[in-house]
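I am still getting used to backbone structure tokens and would like to learn alongside you. Would you supply a protein for us yourself, any chain you care to pick? Start from the sequence, derive the backbone structure tokens from it, and show both lines together. Go ahead whenever you are ready, and we will take it from there.
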Amino acid sequence: MRSSRTGSKGKDFHGEMKKVSQETHLGSRWTMLLPPSKSNPASKSLSSRRRFLQVAASALGTGPFIQRSSGSPNGKVQHASFGASGMAGTDLRKLAAHPDVQLVAVADVDLARTAQVQAEFPGVRIYQDWRELLEEEGDQIDSCNVSTPDHMHAIIALQALERGKHVYCQKPLAHNISETRRLREKAASTRLVTQMGTQLASYTSDLSTQAWIQAGAIGKVRKVYTFSGKTWGDPNPLPDREDPVPETLNWDQWNGVADPAARFVQGAYHPGNWRKRQAFGTGTLGDMGCHMFNGWFRSLGLSAPLSIKSTGPAPQHGNWAIDGEIHYLFPGTQFTAEKTIEVIWSDGAKRPPAEIVALLGETFPREGSVYVGEEGILLAPHGGWVRIFRDGKLVEQAVHRFKDVPGLAETHWFEFIDAILGRTAGKSPKSNFDFAGPLTEAVLLGNVASFFAGETLVWDAAAMTFPSKPEANRLLSRAYRQGWAL
């Protein structure tokens, strides 16, 4: 219920990136910091100036879409947030920082997590039931961010789209593949502005990786290793008890679509450990995969995988596993060395092979991706400096930095709002649902494969099925509590 209504090569590249910024109309200028490096006669030239400009410009934009303007009486986008703290707090603050946004309403099942929002935004109206917010504020809001635990993404985002609201949804786009497909299809049918919360897709680390790869800096790519040191899993069963529910928390609303509903166990689910639980989160792969996959999905122009195989431990006790390893096989593209390319995900204590780490000759990052090319290796730490190695030696490193406001990853949130207002020159937000849907599906396919360790699961993306593994098909969707179906 609602609680209140308060309302050298290096030098050339440096010059080219500045030129790119002037030709791509993003409203931000780039600079590249390039430490001195010795020339390498064996290294491949980054092609012609014109080719590089084309590639880099492509990395900064996406395909066309139809904008719809906000009908707000004061000209500002009237925005609501589903979620008040954690990543939701980040999302609502980043979006509200846009000069043409007004945060008008927030819903969170735990009212204790709304106090800071009320203090920062005195006029915001607070709800405990997201459905009531949509019902009462439906005519007043233009957009929303869905920044709840994963299991509630689809039902809230679908209903918001149904009501004509532009949607910024946290990653992963949904809890399972069926929900993800529905969200993508619904968004396409409405032509509303959408964006998934993979903010580093707009950050210079991911953009520069795409530019380097597509310009041929390491030749055609043979294989990719992508990894995260996080451990959103649990090999142990939950305690066999039920604790008192805090007075500020509506536990029934928190359970939402989950069938059966979970008993409240202090610290087991709320506010953050839900990521470890199969019924509510999607583990480390679901949490970080959408970030990590973004770089090579875009750089290599990938689509749906052909097959998936887990070589890590299987989930148990209703929890996700840790130290996972998933092997994806994708169709090759113009940027790959072969007709297919393998991408290997690992998390927790798992890392790329020792020989790959040794080739890089430096402290290995906790999260990131390694692109193994015909003529070198590119290391893309998550959100950090891009490095290129040949024969075990660092030959290039670079990071781009936006100088103009909003700059850095903030452009991801602002891009969403600017698209609503028709200010993006016909370009859709980078992680719109048409792009984010297939990416999220690829991520979640790894979670399905983890239940069948050692087996290669062939995937038919068009039919959304595993043709030879009916047991796996049952994991593409979920059971919904009565009254909570999509």
The radius of gyration is 22 Å. The chain has a mean pLDDT of 85. The first strand starts at residue 30 and ends at 33.
